Amino acid sequence: MSETWTFVCASPELLPGEMRTAFDEVTGAPILVLNLDGELYALEDICSHEDFELSAGTLDPDAGTIECVLHGAKFDVRDGRALCAPAYEPVAKFPVKREHDGVWTRDDRD
């Protein structure tokens, strides 16, 4: 588990409906940070159906979902749960915070 927070971007660079990617400085995990109406969420940037980056997909800010471009699996960005086939497993959700005018995240898995 990483105790080190990874800088994603300056807070003004992540507006509602936008997303940014980062790699955890300790574990190397790819992380996708999304802004839904001012609330920040962070998920592992890998579709649980097939090893493909979710950040290449489409964010639906109204529904709070992201769709993988590879096979159309959808995930709830608030908790990472899979919403439709072909994905049945959730994607990992990570902590995210605003601090010192920046957005920070980390891989907190054991």
Automatic annotation (TrEMBL):
InterPro entries: Rieske_2Fe-2S, Rieske_2Fe-2S_sf
Keyword Lipid biosynthesis included in the entry's annotation: no
Keyword match Lipid biosynthesis: no
Organism: Luteimonas terricola
The protein's name: Benzene 1,2-dioxygenase ferredoxin
Annotated ranges, domain Rieske: 6-105
Top-level taxonomic group: Bacteria
Pfam families: Rieske (PF00355)
Keywords, ordered alphabetically: 2Fe-2S, Iron, Iron-sulfur, Metal-binding
